[in-house]
TrEMBL record:
It holds the Pfam family Toluene_X. It is found in: Cell outer membrane. Belongs to the OmpP1/FadL family. Residues 1-32 form the signal peptide. This is Outer membrane protein transport protein. PANTHER family: OUTER MEMBRANE PROTEIN NMB0088-RELATED. It is a multi-pass membrane protein. The keyword Nucleus does not apply. Keywords: Cell outer membrane, Membrane, Signal, Transmembrane, Transmembrane beta strand.
Amino acid sequence: MSEFIRPGPRAERLLSATALAALLLAAAPAHATDGYFAHGYGAASKGMAGAGLAYPQDSLALATNPAAATALGNRWDVGLDVFKPTRTAAFRGTAQDRAYDGDGNPVSFIPEAGWVAQVSDRLALGIAAYGNGGMVTDYKTNPFARYGATGAAGVELQQLFISPTVAYRFAPGHSLGLSVNLAGQTFRARGLGPFAGFSQDPAHFSNQRVEKAFGYGLRLGYLGQVTDRLSLGAFWQSETRFEAFDKYRGLFAEGGDFDAPSTYGLGAAFKVTPKLDLVADWRRIEFSKVKSVGTPIAGLFAGHAFGADNGPGFGWRDADVIKLGVNYRVDDQWQVRAGYDHTDNPIPADQTLLNIVAPAVITDQYTLGATWTRPSGLEISGYAMYAPEKTLRGAGSIPPAFGGGNADLSMSETVVGVSFGWKH
C-alpha cells in the first residue's frame, strides 16, 4: 500500500466547495420525485433517470453506492439544478368543490458537490454533499380554510446529507464501500390549525417557526466487474435517525419524530458495444417503517391522537423504483444519454386529505443528458428531466368528521441541471 498523499490545491478547493454547497443546501428547497427522494445524484446519473448503482460516472455516485469511489480516479464535481414543480389539490363531492394551487414558490435552485481521491491501488476516500429530496408546498389560498384555517398553508421539509466515504477493492474488479451519513433537516408547517384539536399537544402542531434537527445513518455498497461487459452494484442505507422536532411534537408521531426511511437496491450495467452501455437499477424505499410517514389517518378515529406513539401520519406505503438508462460515447469528447424512471405512488387513494401538503404522486420521469470532456480533464454535464402530470383521485379520503367527500392530488415536475467535474 502506498503512502497517503495529502490532497493538492484542487482537492482543497473542492472541500471548500463542498462546504459551500452544504450551506446552500441547508437553505435551498429540495425536490421530490421518488417519493420525497431526489430522482438521482450527479448530472450524469440524472441524465439516465438516476440509474447507475453499477455505473459510476462522477463523485456524486457515492450518494447511492459508496463502493464507486474505487472506480472514479481522482476527481471533484459541483452541480446545480433548477427545479420547477406544479402541484394542485382539488376537493370533490364536498359542499365547496374547488381546486388550489400549491406553488407559491415556483422555482428552486439545488446545489450538490463531491470529491474522490485514490489513496492506493485498493483504497479510496471521498465525500458527497447533496439534498435527499424533500417536501415543500405553499398554498397562498388555504385548502383547509373550509375547516376554519387562516393564512397560507403548506410544509417545508428540507434534508441535507454529507457523506464521508471509504471504499476498498478486496479483489480485482470487486469493491466494498461505507458512507457515514451526517444529516440535517429543517421543517415548518403552516395553516393546519383545524387538525390541532385532534392532537395530544395542540400548541405544538402548526404555525411554529422553522426547526432544525440533526441525525446520522450508514450506507453500504458493493461494485463488481463480473465480466468484460457486465458490472453489478448493490447498496443498503439504514434509517437515518434524527432528533425529534420539538416545536412539532403535537403533529408528528412519537412526539415529533421524523426519520429518513431505509432504502436498498440492486443495479447492473451492460456494455452492448464499445460505445453503447445499458444501465438498470431497482430500489425499494421503506416509507411505511417511519411512523410519521407511514401511519394512516384511520388511527385518529381509533383513539390515537396526533403526536402519540401510534399517532396518524401521511399513510405512505413502501415504494419500488425502476430506473433504466442508456449512455452512448459519440467520440472522445462527447457522451449522450437518456433514461426512464418508474416509481410506485406511495400515497393510497384514501390518504389524500393530509397529503394535500405533500402531494408526491409522480410515477413516471423521462430524462436526457450529455457530457463534454476536454483533454485537460474538465467535464461539463447537463441534463433535463420531465415528469408528466399525475393525478391521484381520492377514494373515501375525507373522513365524515371533516364533512366527507374526496381530495384529489396532482403534480408534475421539470428539472434542468448542469455540473462541472475535474479529473486529475
